Amino acid sequence: MSFLLADASIRIAAARIEVMELASRIAHAMATDLEAHTTEAVNYSGAVATQATRDAIQVLGGHGFITDHPVELWYRSAMAMAALDFDPLCTAFEPAL
Length: 97
What we know:
Blueprint: H1 2-27, H2 34-60, H3 70-84, H4 88-92
Helix pairs in contact: 1-2, 2-3
């Protein structure tokens, strides 16, 4: 179980770094290939959220599927976002040059 939790922690940290790098690019108006970076960050973060919550449910065993437990809500939310496959930043954000 410790390896599952350590891997999830590493993946979550990598997703946070990628999102922070994207935010820095947006803040500094680095418009070079911004849509590709946005799509990559959103897809990776969604995959990490899905895998981390799936691993958390495995660690908790049957208790992870009880609807009163927060992990079950996080898992359903991650799966819903993965099912949408929608990147709102690509269509809503236009960088100022």
